[in-house]
Amino acid sequence: MKLIGKSQPQTGAPQQDIDTEAGPVPAQRGSWRTGARRPYGPESLVHVPVPQVGGRYPAAAPIGQDHRAEGRVDHDHDHDPDSDSDTASFETELAARESAALETRHRAAADAGDANAASQLGALLLRRGDLDDAEPYLRKAAAAGLRAAANNLGVLLHQRGHRAEAGGWWRQAAVAGSAPAAHALGLHLRDHGDEEAAEYWLHFAAEQGHALGAYALGDLMEHRRDVRAERWFKAAADAGHREAAYRLARMREAAGDKESAETWYRTAAVRSHARAALRLGVLVEERATGDQSLREEAARWYRQSAQNGEPRAACALGFLLRDSGDLPSAAEWWQEAAEAGDGNAANALGALHASRGEDDAAERWYRAALEAGDHNGAFNLGLLCASAGRQAQAEQWYRRAAYAGHREACNALAVILLQRGDESGAEPWFSKAAEAGSVDGAFNLGILHANRGEQQQAQEWYARAAAEGHGEAALQLAVVKEQRGDLSAALERYRQAATGGSAEGAFRLASLLDRRGDVPEEAEHWYAIAADADHSRAQVRMGVRAAERGALEIAESWYRRAAETGSRSAAFNLGLLLARQGREAEAMLWYTRAADAGHGRAALRLALLALRRGEPVQAENWCKRATDYGPPEVAERAARLLDALHPELSA
C-alpha cells in the first residue's frame, strides 16, 4: 500500500505545457494591479499543502517547441509493461528506432548550427535524464532567443541545484511570453519570499490558460485568505487539474455547499485523486439512509481511494461493510488500513477481537493504534484492563490517554479516583472532561456537587449535560422541577430524559401523565418504553393495565419478567393472578418470594392461607412478619388476625 498523503501524478494535465508561438510580452511587474487590493476571504478556508510532483517544482519535465514555430515536437508514448505480445514488442522496438533516428537528425542539424534542432535535441536529452549532454545544446538554443530552450535550460539548472541561474533563464522565457516559464518563475519567486512578484507571474501564466499556473495562483491566494483563490482553483480544475478540483471541493464544503462540493470531489475522484474519492464516499454515505444504491456507490469510492493508497478510505469501507452485516470483509479492510498506519482501523480491530473475548489480540491492536498516534488506543486498553478486573493497569492507561487530552479517559480516571475515595483528585479530571465536551463528565460533576449539597452548581452541570442529550442529567433536573411543583417544566424534562434513553425518565413521565389522566395512550406508550428497557416498576404497571383489560396472558408475562428480576410487587401480583386461575401451588411460591423480600400484603396473604389449611403456627409467623413489613393498614389487619389466633394457639 502507498504511503499516506503521497502525491500521485496529475491526470489530464502535463507537468509542463509545450511552448507555442510567442505570446504577448507581459507588462512590467505590478503594472496590471492598479486598484486597491481585493479584500481577503473568510478565515475558515482550509489550507491543504501543495503536493510536490516530480520534485520541488511541477516543471520537472522538459518541453519541446511548437511545431508551427520551431520544428517538430517529440511526444512521450505510454507503454503497457504487462504486455508481452509480439505486437507490443514490435511497436516498442519501432518507437526506439524512430527516437534514435530522430536524435541523430537533430544532433547533425544542431552541430551544423541549427538552433531549433539544438533546442529539440536538448529537450529530448533532458527528458531522458542526460543532463551533461543536454546542457550545451540548450544553452546554444537559449542564447539564440528560443524561449522553449530558455525554459528547459531553467529546468535543467534547477535540477542541478543552480536555482538563481535557473530563475534568470525562466525570466527570459517568461518575458518572451512562455506561460510554463512564468509558472516556474512564479514558484521560484514565491519560495524566495517575493509573493508580490510571484503573484504577478503566476497570474500571467494563469491568464494564458496554464492549469498549473492557475492552481499555484489559487494556492497562493488561499494562503493569504484571498477570496479570489476559488476562481483560480476552478480555472485549473476546468483545465483538468485534479488537485485543484479537490481544493475547490474542500472550499465549497467548508462554505456549507455540499452539493457543489460533491460535484468537484467527483471531478477529482474520476481522475484517481485518493482523498477526493474518500470525501466523495463520505458525502454519498451521508445521503444513503435507507438507499442501498447510494451505499454501494459510497463503497465504490472508498474502495477506489483505498486502492490508490488512502488507509482512511479502507477504514471507512470497513465500517460501511460492518453496518451492512459483512463483518469478515470489514475486518479485512480494517486490517489493511491498520497495517498502513491507520489508528482508527486498529481500534476497530481491537474492539472486534474484544467482543469475541480475544483479549490478547484486542490488546495487540489497541497498542498498534496507540503507536499510530491514536490515543483512543490507550483509552481502549484501559477499558480492556478494567473489564478484566485489572484496575491498576486500567488507571495507568486512562491516565496516559487523559494527559493526551482524551476527554472520556479523563472521566473514566475520575470515576476510579472517586470510587477509592479520592474526591479531591477526581474533581479536576471531571472538570477537564466536562470542559472538553464529555457529557458523562458534566453529569458526574453534577453528582459530585449534589453529594456536597451544592445544588445550584449541580443543576448547572446537569443542565449542560442535558443540553447535549444526556437522559440521566435531564432526569435529575425533572425531579427537582416536580418537587418544586413546576409540573409543566417537569414534564418537559422527563420527556427529554425519556427520549435520551433514561428508563426511569420514561417511567416518571408515564406516571405523571397517568396522574393527570388526560393522555392515557401516551402514558402507556412511555410505560412500555420503560418496561422494554427492563424497568421493573414499569413492567408491573404494564401488567396491571393488561389485567384491567382482561389480557391475562400479557399481564402474566409482564409480572413474571419483573418478578424474576427481584420485584416483590410483581411477585405478589403474579401470585394473585395465578391464584385466580386456580394455580394455587405456583401462586404460593410467588407469595413466598414476595414476602421474603419484605412485601407485607404477601405475608398477610400467606397467613390467611395457612389459617385456611389449619396451620395456626405458620399463620402466626406470617402475621408477625406482615405487621413488621407494613404498610399501616396491612399491619393493622395482621394484628387483628393475630389477636384472633391467640385463643386457638393457647388452647
From TrEMBL:
Biased composition (Basic and acidic residues): 65-82
Chain segments carrying region Disordered: 1-91
Top-level taxon in the UniProt lineage: Bacteria
InterPro entries named among the record's database cross-references: Sel1-like, Sel1_AlgK, TPR-like_helical_dom_sf, TPR_rpt
Organism: Kitasatospora kifunensis
Protein's UniProt name: TPR repeat protein
PANTHER family in the cross-refs: ERAD-ASSOCIATED E3 UBIQUITIN-PROTEIN LIGASE COMPONENT HRD3, SEL-1-LIKE PROTEIN
